[in-house]
Amino acid sequence: MGKTNIEWADEVWNPTTGCIKVSAGCKNCYAEMIAHRFWGARKFTDVQCHTDRLDIPLHWRKPRRVFVNSMSDLFHGDVPDEFIAKVFDVMGACEQHTFMVLTKRPNRMKYFLRSSNRPTVKSKYGGWFFGGKFPLHNVMLGVSVENQETADERTPLLLQTPAAVRFLSCEPLLEPIKVGMYLSRTNMPGLNLMPGFRDPLPGIDWIVVGGESGPKARPCDVEWIRSIVRQCKIAGVPSFVKQDYGQRPGIQGRIPDDLWTIKEFPNAVQRQSKRA
Predict the structure, then answer these.
(1) For residues 248 and 129, what is the distance between their CA atoms, to the nearest angstrom?
(2) Contacts by 26-34, CB closer than 8 A, 24 or more apart
(3) What region does 214 belong to: left with phi over 0, alpha with psi -120 to 50, or beta?
(4) Would you place residue 271 in the very low, low, confident or very high pLDDT band (cuts 50, 70, 90)?
(5) Three-point CA angle 147, 148, 153, nearest 5°
(6) Which of 206, 240, 273, 275 has the most CB atoms lying inside 10 A of its own CB?
(7) Domain ranges of the chain
């Protein structure tokens, strides 16, 4: 909890901990390795909700980029809807921060955020579910995709989910992925030259991409990363190249200079108007 080595966040906030593996990207889960070191006899598959951690972001006065649940998945089936509602209530009350919610379970996220039967909570912080501020301008929703199969399965569900900013985490990147069809097309060459043109389809606003880390890292070809960066540039979408790429299992290579400088972030507040 607190300061983090995750390059695209200033803080981590873990109101829930514990998870269950769902796809190939989970094989060498860093959170599970941390749990084995510090949780004692508790298993990583033991999902817990921590009510005592809910108000932590309220004590951070300086604006921060906050990664929500680095040690879990907010939309895991063992996290009650009522607790998810409380997490969103806190995020709605902390408008000075930008929260990044990343999931491998976009179907539940979509259902929860689109459902008219969402639970209401008795708020201590401003009543997000009663305040008419949805979608929250300071909350970025994302999905993890590690290969083409997960990209094609999870990204369309994310695009159907109301959000101010949507992003993909292509990490650990296990194969080349085509994502161009999912990116925001507002800035693509030629589109704005058509009189009266308005693209009715939302797109992905930001992409994080990187190879796997750790002693058991699976290989990632830097050309796979370059391909995603090129797709982002064509669509006018910012990208963030994260950490070294594995040249072969267990060995990490240096990020080439042309990719090292790609550290762009979206502007969550300004992009809200696109979702109206």
Answers:
(1) 48
(2) 26/104, 27/218, 28/172, 28/212, 28/214, 28/216, 28/217, 28/218, 30/213, 30/214, 31/70, 31/71, 31/72, 33/214, 34/71
(3) left
(4) very low
(5) 105
(6) 206
(7) 2-275
Name the DSSP letter for residue 101.
Answer: E
Instruction: Kindly state the average pLDDT of the residues 68-86.
Output: 95
Q: Give pLDDT, residue 57.
A: 95
Is the CB of residue 67 less than 8 Å from the CB of residue 9? Answer: yes
pLDDT digits (tens, 9 = 90+) for 163-198: 889 999 999 999 999 999 899 755 444 444 444 545
Q: In a 10 Å sphere around its CB, with 0-12 CB exposed, 13-18 middle and 19+ buried, how is residue 159 labelled?
A: middle
Tell me the pairing of strands 165-170 and 139-144. parallel
248 vs 60, residue with greater confidence: 60
Global pTM? Answer: 0.86
Residue 32's SS3 state is helix
Find the angle CA(66)-CA(67)-CA(68) to the nearest 5 degrees. 105
